[in-house]
Amino acid sequence: LERTFIAIKPDGVQRGLISEIISRFERKGFKLVAIKIVVPSKDFAQKHYHDLKTRPFFDGLCDFLSSGPVVAMVWEGEGVIKYGRKLIGATDPQKSEPGTIRGDLAVVVGRNIIHGSDGPETAKEEVNLWFKPEELV
Ligand code: ATP
Ligand code: MG
After folding, report:
1. Whole-angstrom Cα distance, residue 85 to residue 118?
2. Is-catalytic flag, 115?
3. Which residue has the least CA distance to atom 12 on ligand 1?
4. ipTM score for this prediction
5. Maximum distance among all alpha carbons in the chain?
6. How far is it, in rounded angstroms, from Cα 9 to Cα 22?
7. Running along the chain, 137 residues long, what does each successive block of 10 average in pLDDT?
8. pTM of full prediction above 0.95
């Protein structure tokens, strides 16, 4: 069954949105197969966002991801990669639809509270980066 990597970023954790976010994935019918809370190092954040290393906001983004606790999760279910992104909403919360996580709960792109893998390849890559095989149910 398909799996995706979802992370509640430091702003989402700090704002007390962990249960709100998990509920939305659970209520949809997706299954949580791994979860842990970690403070990623900056080096780790750079690995996670390596695709974006030429972007002007890369350094700030990696500083931010490593600034506090992150809830790292793996969710499983039919179509979970694509539909998970739908639950999350557009990258810029000013453009995310109401009803989506970012649309309902965030305001600015640099503090958009949640990450979700953007395709099958990155989902595999990110699950393997964040979790050891024995940490997955
Ligand atoms: P994520 O990978 O975090 O799920 P995404 O796939 O919707 O988000 P990406 O293009 O992968 O968007 O960008 C990764 C993250 O970089 C975004 O979630 C956002 O926090 C940050 N970001 C993207 N564009 C900008 C920008 N123009 N200015 C500042 N930060 C940005
Ligand atoms: Mg992305």
Report:
1. 7
2. yes
3. 91
4. 0.94
5. 39
6. 13
7. 98 98 98 98 98 97 98 98 98 98 98 98 98 95
8. yes
